[in-house]
Write a structure and sequence with these properties.
Elements lengths: L2 E6 L14 E2 L2 E2 H12 L4 E5 L3 H9 L19 H16 L5 E4 L9 H14 L3 E7 L10 E3 L5 E3 L2 H6 L10 E10 H7 L7 E5 L11 H10 L3
Parallel strand pairs: 1-4, 1-5, 6-10
Antiparallel strand pairs: 2-3, 5-9, 6-9, 7-8
Helix pairs in contact: 1-4
Length: about 230
């Protein structure tokens, strides 16, 4: 089965300027996920989708391909990931005839993704006969849907699910709930048919919360630097 990794890495970033090239532990941020993809041994080709030639240069030096520069209209703050993936897959087919069966999507902002997580998530998807798979982390109690609060316009708080909150007084009572981790695997044809990264038949591989750290703010970055020794 032909495999392809897509890494979206636009040049614009308001919270952390040129975030994808900012050094983390002495290396540009984007290199962290590119190295993990290469070390997994299950990806035949890695393509970086970027609108910035500086990012393209660093990506090529790290062993990735940058066969196109992403159009500016697909590099805005509010551009959906779906549109970026769709553009990359259609460009590769129309310009190179490339139609990989299995696609991995990893973002540079999740630098602690591990090679074995890439491999094991793919193995899980194939073993289960799924059309897509993600890594996932267990939602902590303070973020669990049973204990989330709503606030009215005048500042009063109430539980969104008050009956469920009262019925689950301890952490041990909470049924596990899962959040997205740090990567997607999906079948190309399933994505093109549904324009969804997580199709109806999808599975998840539990991972640790550190591996799923997503860097979007200066505080996230400071936490990542503090965690580097781990």
């Amino acid at each position: 089965m032909a495999t392809l990794a897509l890494v979206p890495a636009r040049g614009g970033s308001k919270s952390i300027p040129l975030k994808n090239l900012k050094p983390l532990g002495g290396r540009p941020l984007i290199e962290w996920c590119l190295d993990a993809i290469a070390a997994s041994g299950v990806v035949e080709r890695t393509v970086v989708s970027t609108d910035d030639e500086r990012i393209a240069e660093v990506a090529r030096a790290a062993g990735a391909d940058v066969p196109f520069l992403r159009p500016a209209q697909l590099a805005a703050d509010d551009t959906p990931s779906i549109d970026v993936v769709d553009h990359a897959l259609r460009w590769l087919e129309e310009n190179e005839g490339a139609t990989p069966e299995l696609v991995l999507l990893v973002q540079p902002t999740e630098p602690f993704v591990q090679p074995e997580q890439i491999t094991q998530t793919l193995e899980l998807m194939l073993k289960r006969g799924a059309d897509s798979a993600i890594t996932m982390t267990e939602v902590p109690r303070n973020n669990h849907p049973y204990h989330v609060r709503e606030r009215t316009d005048d500042g009063w708080l109430s539980f969104e699910q008050p009956d469920a909150h009262r019925a689950h007084p301890t952490r041990q009572d909470d049924p596990p709930r899962w959040a997205f981790g740090n990567l997607y695997w999906f079948r190309r044809e399933a994505f093109l048919a549904t324009r969804r990264l997580e199709t109806d038949k999808h599975v998840g591989l539990p991972i640790d919360a550190v591996s799923a750290l997503d860097l979007n703010t200066p505080d996230d970055w400071a936490l990542a630097e503090a965690l580097l020794p781990r």
